């Protein structure tokens, strides 16, 4: 999409290749392979959206216009599905900005008047938005329902622990992370050649190849992230902009890169086509002084500027200088091809840094990257640690032991305790040392998903509110809204801990002290890295109670944790209480067996001595539906965060399925929108093939007489 867009606005093949290479190598690729997927996945949508907008403006047929509008909707739908607030907003800003630029400053001659431009831009924007929301429906509407039950309902962070709006940053800091070359700036650092060429394009001072637009976009996305912003107060006049942007304004600075890359490609295009050495030298001087000023500013503020960004900028400057000097002589032979050679070298420079350099550093153990800060290359086999985190099977370890139990025992969960609640009281989540061997071998991170195991903790910026409140009551402590980590208090025989079906607890052998589980638990596995304890207080995955009380706005959690109420016999329910009866002889011999367990469906057989409430140690959320012997019945919010299903006396088949109405509506929306997209693309393709079949063959034209296409404003 980047290559096609660059070519369509007039760039030749090498600059277009440079733009697409810069787009694919660096922050985009790196972010997609680490922990910045949400931001990185937005970049392809920007490129595809810009291409769709440009082609829609150029379309002369209705079918073509609608097909490009549908493609724009497809692009924006990916942002709505993956990052519906900020991501969609910033991508829409790019596309709307390009349409405005074409309308006001670079109108296409074939479109007609500026009013015709405006009408076409409005129709494209409205159609793209409708198609995007419709096609993203299967992801967007269920996510919206889920978010409404989370700690940040409606995007409001007021009730989220440490969910305050993050501040803007000094503009020099934002520049510093772009020029940096450390593990912490790697997600934002880019080649100095890109920055220098972008500045060079600005220095050429031409309204070609979208340079004014990309220059403004580069500055704008940094400006709205900065303390010294000149424009943010005006953007905040737009309804909901502040609500969406203010939580994490620095995220906007990540959107400078598409503009950087296309601006740099334009600079390379100017270098190839320019015939006046003085113009090149003037632009190079402006770019060099500006780049040196940015480096000096960062050094003055003690921000680390990497040698590689500076070195690649110097290489780019020297190549530009050589191309300018060759204009002083006769441009024949190899000298006439010097700009093309230089462009090829700059593409190679992009491949070298940052990706190839990072790979070499990791392979030879001389460098680190995000997530490896706690791994010592001198004592740890980094490749082995990384490979261990993605293993599906790991026999002979704690992971292998738990997998063996999973295959022979009823469903259970485990909890990993690695002293996230440090002695100083500071919370140190696993994500900041996710490749630390302690974290890897105790399965505290995301290994459970690879291994087919289930745990109770983890990382998610939109945890369900009822589950977070359950955790806080269980541990007597709050933690940052991103995390639900297991603290010391949970292991101190907390009934709420056992009620989550936690049968096993893993701890690192290097912990340095014995947590409470070591006293009342049973050690069932030990190796050189990990100890596994069995929790005798663990509840089964499902059980039946015959006493039901109304929920007490969270007070029931304290009653459970203080053992004032036995959760095996009593449950608290939100809403109308179901009818329950005690067993005839006063002793319950109920039985519950899980016969099928899938992420979206659970089947059980339940035998109750009297009418009771089947309690499942599964987190409650709207959208779950239950049937008892085929008859639909409501799933009740039980014990503040769990699910409950009323069952009559006797033996019954109980099935729970996740079937939210929002998913049904969303699937229909996505399906219909997808069919509409395929329809307009098919219509456009048929029309294109028919038009080609009606075209008469062109006569041969001598090469010297081939007319030159003016693409300067396209």
UniProtKB/TrEMBL annotation:
Taxonomic classification: Bacteria, Pseudomonadati, Thermomicrobiota, Thermomicrobia, Thermomicrobiales
UniProt organism field: uncultured Thermomicrobiales bacterium
PANTHER family recorded: INTEGRAL MEMBRANE PROTEIN, INTEGRAL MEMBRANE PROTEIN-RELATED
Segments crossing the lipid bilayer: 12-30, 89-109, 121-141, 187-205, 255-272, 279-300, 306-325, 337-356, 665-686
Record carries keyword Membrane: yes
UniProt-listed InterPro entries: Uncharacterised_YfhO (IPR018580)
Name of the featured protein: YfhO family protein
Entry-linked Pfam families: YfhO
Keywords: Membrane, Transmembrane, Transmembrane helix
């Amino acid at each position: 999409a980047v290559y096609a867009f660059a070519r369509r606005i007039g760039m030749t093949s090498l600059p277009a290749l440079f733009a697409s290479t810069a787009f694919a190598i660096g922050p985009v690729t790196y972010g997609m392979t680490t922990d910045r997927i949400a931001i990185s996945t937005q970049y392809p949508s920007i490129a595809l959206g810009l291409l769709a907008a440009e082609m829609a403006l150029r379309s002369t047929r209705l079918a073509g216009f609608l097909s490009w509008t549908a493609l724009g909707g497809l692009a924006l739908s990916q942002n709505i599905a993956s990052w519906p607030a900020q991501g969609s907003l910033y991508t829409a800003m790019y596309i709307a900005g390009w349409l405005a630029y074409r309308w006001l400053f670079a109108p296409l001659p074939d479109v007609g008047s500026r009013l015709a431009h405006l009408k076409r831009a409005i129709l494209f924007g409205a159609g793209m938005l409708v198609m995007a929301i419709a096609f993203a429906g299967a992801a967007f509407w269920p996510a919206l329902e889920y978010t409404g039950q989370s700690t940040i309902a409606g995007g409001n962070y007021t009730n989220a622990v440490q969910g305050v709006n993050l501040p803007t940053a000094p503009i020099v800091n934002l520049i510093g992370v772009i020029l940096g070359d450390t593990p912490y700036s790697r997600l934002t650092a880019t080649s100095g050649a890109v920055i220098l060429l972008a500045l060079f394009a600005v220095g050429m001072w031409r309204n070609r190849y979208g340079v004014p637009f990309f220059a403004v976009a580069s500055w704008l996305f940094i400006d709205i992230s900065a303390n010294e912003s000149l424009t943010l107060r005006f953007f905040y006049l737009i309804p909901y902009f502040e609500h969406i942007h203010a939580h994490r304004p620095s995220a906007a600075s990540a959107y400078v890169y598409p503009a950087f890359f296309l601006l740099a490609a334009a600079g390379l295009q100017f270098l190839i086509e320019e015939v006046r050495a003085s113009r090149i030298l003037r632009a190079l001087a402006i770019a060099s002084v500006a780049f040196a000023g940015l480096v000096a500013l960062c050094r003055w503020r003690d921000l680390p500027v990497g040698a590689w960004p500076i070195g690649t900028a110097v290489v780019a400057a020297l190549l530009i200088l050589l191309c300018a000097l060759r204009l002083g002589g006769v441009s024949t032979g190899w000298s006439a091809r010097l700009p093309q050679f230089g462009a090829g070298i700059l593409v190679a420079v992009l491949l070298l840094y940052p990706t190839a350099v990072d790979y070499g550093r990791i392979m030879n153990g001389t460098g680190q990257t995000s997530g490896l800060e706690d791994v010592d290359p001198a004592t740890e086999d980094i490749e082995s640690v990384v490979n261990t985190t993605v293993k599906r099977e790991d026999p002979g370890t704690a992971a292998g032991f738990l997998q063996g139990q999973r295959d022979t025992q009823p469903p259970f969960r485990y909890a990993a305790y690695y002293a996230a609640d440090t002695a100083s009281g500071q919370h140190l989540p696993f994500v900041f040392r996710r490749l630390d061997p302690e974290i890897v071998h105790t399965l505290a991170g995301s290994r459970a998903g690879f291994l087919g195991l289930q745990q109770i903790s983890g990382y998610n910026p939109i945890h369900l509110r009822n589950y977070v409140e359950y955790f806080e009551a269980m541990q007597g402590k709050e933690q940052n809204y991103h995390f639900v980590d297991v603290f010391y208090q949970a292991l101190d025989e907390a009934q709420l801990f056992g009620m989550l079906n936690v049968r096993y607890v893993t701890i690192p052998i290097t912990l340095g002290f014995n947590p409470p589980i070591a006293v009342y638990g049973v050690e069932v596995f030990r190796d050189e890295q990990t100890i596994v304890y069995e929790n005798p207080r663990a509840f089964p995955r499902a059980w039946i109670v015959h006493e039901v009380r109304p929920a007490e706005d969270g007070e029931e959690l304290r009653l459970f944790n203080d053992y004032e109420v036995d959760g095996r016999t009593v449950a608290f329910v939100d809403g109308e209480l179901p009818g329950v009866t005690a067993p005839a002889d006063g002793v319950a011999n109920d039985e519950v067996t899980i016969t099928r367990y899938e992420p979206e469906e659970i089947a059980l057989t339940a035998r109750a001595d009297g009418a009771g409430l089947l309690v499942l140690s599964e987190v409650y959320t709207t959208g779950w539906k239950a049937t008892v012997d085929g008859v639909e019945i409501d799933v009740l919010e039980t014990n503040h965060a769990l699910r409950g299903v009323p069952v009559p006396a006797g033996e019954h088949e109980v099935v729970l399925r996740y079937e939210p109405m929002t998913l049904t509506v969303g699937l229909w929306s996505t399906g219909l929108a997808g069919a509409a997209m395929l329809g307009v693309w098919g219509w456009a393709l048929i029309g294109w093939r028919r038009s080609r079949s009606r075209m008469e063959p062109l006569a041969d034209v001598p090469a010297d007489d081939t007319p030159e296409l003016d693409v300067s404003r396209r």
